[in-house]
Structure formats: structure tokens, C-alpha cells
Design goal:
Radius of gyration: 19 Å
Structural class: mainly alpha
Helix content: over 70%
Number of strands: 0
Largest sheet: none
């Protein structure tokens, strides 16, 4: 795997994790500086956009996890897919199961459940990034090994 194809999983995972981080900060700033009602509306719009970013990154990671006609998944995918699937499930559950109830004011438990799902999704995305960044270190390329031995 070379070039963009080799870097695409890492870029998608970094975009996913980074956008979750940025959105988490943005929502906190909204509630810190705006009255509750407009902040809640703006936060809901931001979280909906974030859910779509999470779904897009997760689905693309699933699509590229196995080359066409390949018998096995890519090496990075064997370690990371459980976290990709978990993050996708958490994003969808938070957006369509919990957020509508929290916005409808059905109790503080929905707010805290949404916060917990968001934090777990953040951890899933971080685990994907972590596993993708460690793969090249554990599996050096043949050219790197030859250079190290002085044969290149």
C-alpha cells in the first residue's frame, strides 16, 4: 500500500477524533457564553453535523479495511475495526436515540447518557488513531530493514 491509499485510514481516523475533540470544546464554549436555550439549539446542530462526520469516517474506514478481492482485511483493520464499529454505533445511538430525548427535556439522565456516549465515541476514535499509528512501527517495510542492515 503506497501514497494516499496507505495514509487514508490514518487521515480518516485523525479527522474523526479531531472533529470529536473540537466539537466537544465548541459545545462547552456555547453553554459557557450563551443562554441555555439558544446554546442548546446550536449545540444540537453541531452535534448532528458531528454525527454525520463520524458516520462518514467510520463507513469509509470500513470500506477501505479490505482490498477488493482480498481474502483478509488490511493489517491495520484487524486491530482497529472493533473500535470503528463501536464508534459508529455510539454516534448513531447518541444522535437518534439520546439527543432527541435530551433536547425534549425528558430528564437530566438523557443529557448525561448523551455525554457518556460522546465520551465513549471519542475514546473509540482515539483507539483507532492509536492503533493506526503503531502499525508501521511494529511492521517495518522491507526497504527499511535492508537500509538498517546496510544492504540498500
Amino acid at each position: 500500500m503506497h501514497g494516499l491509499q496507505a495514509r487514508l485510514p490514518w487521515l480518516l481516523a485523525a479527522l474523526w477524533w479531531g472533529s470529536l475533540t473540537a466539537m466537544g470544546v465548541a459545545v462547552q464554549v456555547l453553554f459557557a457564553h450563551w443562554p441555555r436555550t439558544p446554546a442548546a439549539g446550536a449545540a444540537a446542530a453541531l452535534l448532528a453535523a458531528q454525527a454525520w462526520i463520524s458516520v462518514a469516517c467510520g463507513v469509509l474506514l470500513l470500506v477501505i479495511s479490505k482490498k477488493k478481492h482480498a481474502q483478509k482485511q488490511e493489517p491495520w483493520a484487524q486491530d482497529a475495526l472493533v473500535f470503528v464499529l463501536g464508534g459508529l454505533l455510539l454516534a448513531l445511538l447518541g444522535q437518534y436515540g439520546v439527543l432527541p430525548r435530551a433536547l425534549a427535556g425528558q430528564g437530566a439522565v438523557w443529557f448525561y447518557l448523551g455525554l457518556a456516549l460522546y465520551a465513549l465515541q471519542w475514546l473509540c476514535a482515539l483507539c483507532v488513531v492509536w492503533r493506526l499509528t503503531r502499525t508501521p512501527l511494529e511492521q517495518p517495510s522491507a526497504s527499511f530493514s535492508q537500509e538498517e542492515d546496510g544492504r540498500a
